Amino acid sequence: MAETSSEKTREPFVRVAKRTGIHWYQSWGIRIVAVFLALIVNALFIHGVTGLNPVEVYRIMWTGTFESKYNFLTTLRDMSILYCVALALAPAFRMRFWNIGGEGQVLMGALASALLMIYADQLPNGLLLPLMILCSAVFGAVWAFIPAWFKAKWNTNETLFTLMMNYVAINIVNALTNIWRGAKSSLGTLNTQTKAGWWPKFLGYRFMPFILIVTALAIFIKIYVHRSKHGYELSVLGDSPNTARYAGINVKKVILRTMILSGALCGLAGFGIVSGVDMTISSGTARGYGFTAIIVAWLAHLEPEYMALISFLLIFLDKGAAQITSAYSVLNDYASQVITAIILFFILGSEFFVNYRLVFRSRHPGTHAPAPAAASAGVQMTDADGKEGTKES
Amino acid sequence: MKKQFLSLGVAAAVSASLLAGCGSSASNTAASTAGSAASEAASTASTETAAAASTSAAAEETASAEAVDPSSMKIGMICVGDEAVTYDKAHIDGITAAAGKVGIGTDQIVFKKNVPEDATAYDAAVELVESQGCNLVISDSYGHQNFMVQAAEEYPDVQFVSMTGDFAALSGLDNFHNAFDNIYEARYVSGVVAGMKVQQLVDDGKLTDDNYDKDGKVKIGYVGAFNYAEVVSGYTAFYLGLTSVYPDAHMYVDYTNSWFDVDAEAATAEKLIADGCVIIGQHADSTGAPSAVEQAFQDGNDHVFSVGYNISMLDVAPDVALTSASNNWEVYYEELFRSILSGQGVPNDWSKGYNDGAVGLTELGSAVADGTQDKVNEVEAAIKDGSLKVFDTSSFTVSQDNIDVTKSKSGAVVTTDDAGHVTSCKVDMSYYDYSSGTPKVVYQGDTVEAIEDGAFTESTFRSAPYFTIRIDGIDELS
């Protein structure tokens, strides 16, 4: 305040600067500290509100996934569904097409499977199941194609369009389940006697094949995005549509093709739920994963291997919350949601500190030179090598 | 064992990028499973043989009468809510007390609370069997039934009981059972308490024009959960109890479409009060409705009162709670355990009422009319000795409109005499799948004649209620 010579030389107390190079151990260190801080804040919340021992609550949370083999497998199962949706969204996000319609695309896929289970239940499972897979993918793809076509043709706002398509899908499913349930209070499990359209058990469980399918899909998406011409076109389009046009990329075609892929994978997730987990359909069948997967995709920088990690983490938190709710009546649904939300908030927040650093006002003005950015930027641009490449867009 | 390793291998493959934290989890799983087995073994101390002496009348299977050691029991209990939900609390307290009586330790019961009525219930059941080693799994809500039967098919060595369910006997599974109690008896008596109160209000001239419908009948409100037979049977019994004392009453039933929703129940009660109802009955599991009635009373409405469910509502509604119809599940659970321990297996379609103490009323509030206790004693005695039948056909009429509504909502075929009294009610016990347009039978049952000796015989052909007749004097608002 004393040196009022010129405003522009005055440095603020703290400013935010983009990190230009960060080692993997630094970024992971930041994340681990964030989780640790989240646990401390949660401990204060748990103890302050309920008087329970937070360590015991954390132990119960842990058991949601790790108490038994079955808990672990159901965690993997739910994770694979969420992961499937995230894998579906990633290519669209890569070309900066905001597909917020995962929920509706999953539901339409689920609807296709349910329709076949209800009206084609006389077919043998060997024929019915492939048909369900195909139709689910097609339904999901159609649901994604509609907003994509409008975007390609008239440049409509895809965020709003895909979002609206969710509500249309939810209401179609609601209307149909209302008809199907007849005089009963709810639709109930489909084909309980004939088991038509139920996945056969594999390795002891009905959901095992889907976990394998999603694993294969993850590898496919990884290769598709990073090693194929299609994937390259996506990245160019995402960076700059004009560049893409200049380079002779057919932008409309890329948008339509990618959204068909995105919708088809969402539809597959819907099939997985109806055929391997719920064996019925309701407007809640998509479990909100269409939205959660957006968080998964972005937290993982759209990289399939990190998406696996993030979807596991989210399902782990979810299972932990359910376990807490079951164990303590004082920690009800709302309280356990607060606990998971705090953890999520810190993890999301940690990404800020991975990408940016805080520069405090130095005592001796002028000595703190900003790091030269140009030198390392070129290296950081490549995403495939697994470095913490903060995308320069 | 090989299977297990394989599946863990799959797990590892999916989470290929997961770091050490997850990798170590697989071995952790094995360790904790072993741990729970150890804790199970620890509780073999109390081996009372009292159970062996019991000669349970309810058991229907007499194939193997070898006594079962209480310490070998491991029970899983799936609850739709938790202790905060009055219905679930009654189950949790009941099973805990019954287990104590027969020498089953509290550590032999594993609770899964807040389990929704969807595929989560199947996960919970499988988890209880596979990981906790339960040999008896009980679920407490109707909507769990579909998922319980799925688990029962896959684990034939484990016994499953779906409380309040309706198709176990038809499913053809030896290890899948239903049970309920005759709560309609208690609802009838709670209706009598309400009727006494209405009579008093009318005598004292407290009611205003708002409280009467266009035919001069006093308006009664009822907060229902779902449009299920269980609820229809319950509110009809309540209405019949009320009209046995004060015949000129018209009841309005509004549904919340949830078993437990404090806000929705309170809002529904407020709406019924605003419409002029003087009694608010309920078949929903929270204290929302009585609290709303108490609030109305505090706000100056001195002629609206509440009849609750499950627990006494005097804590939340001290000025307006008359009484509550309540289930005493301990009676069932004790009989269930004694039957299993004596080697006679799980009773099929257990359903008992006042005679065995399985249902009853909670304490009467200070607001009840004079002489209510004497009247209650008289009615209870009449129900116990069989001289009073709750669904006596001479006590209600069914119009042609209501016959049609009944047919369309439940499929039951009702015929009446010229005066509108029911002479026949054919109830199809089959469980249907309606999804493809033409009803497909999932579980074939008989079509039974439910009217016997001038009364509808409830909960005898199966434990779950099947009274679905929409009678005159009651309107469903939604």
Structural notes for this entry:
- The complex is a heterodimer of chains A (393) and B (478).
- Chain A is mostly helical and 393 residues long.
- Chain A has a domain at 69-305.
- Chain A contains 14 helices and two strands.
- Chain A has helices at 24-50, 54-66, 69-94, 102-119, 125-154, 158-180, 208-227, 229-239, 241-246, 251-278, 289-299, 304-327, 333-355, 374-380; strands at 14-18, 356-360.
- Chain A has a two-stranded antiparallel sheet.
- The two termini of chain A are 37 Å apart.
- Chain B is an alpha/beta fold and 478 residues long.
- Chain B has a domain at 32-181 and 332-338: Response regulator (Rossmann fold, 3-Layer(aba) Sandwich).
- Helix content of chain B is 38%, strand content 18%.
- Chain B has helices spanning 2-14, 20-23, 25-42, 50-53, 86-102, 119-130, 145-154, 168-171, 183-203, 229-245, 262-274, 288-298, 329-341, 372-384, 400-410, and strands at residues 75-78, 109-112, 136-139, 159-163, 176-181, 218-224, 249-255, 279-283, 305-309, 321-327, 350-352, 359-361, 413-416, 422-428, 431-433, 440-443, 447-449, 451-452, 455-456, 474-476.
- In chain B, the strands form five sheets. In chain B, strands 12-10-9-8-6-7-20 form a seven-stranded mixed beta sheet, with helices on both faces. A six-stranded parallel beta sheet of chain B has the order 2-1-3-4-5-11. In chain B, strands 13-14-17 form a three-stranded antiparallel beta sheet, covered by helices on one side.
- The longest helix of chain B has 21 residues, at 183-203.
- The N and C termini of chain B lie far apart (54 Å).
- The interface between A and B is large, with 58 and 60 residues.
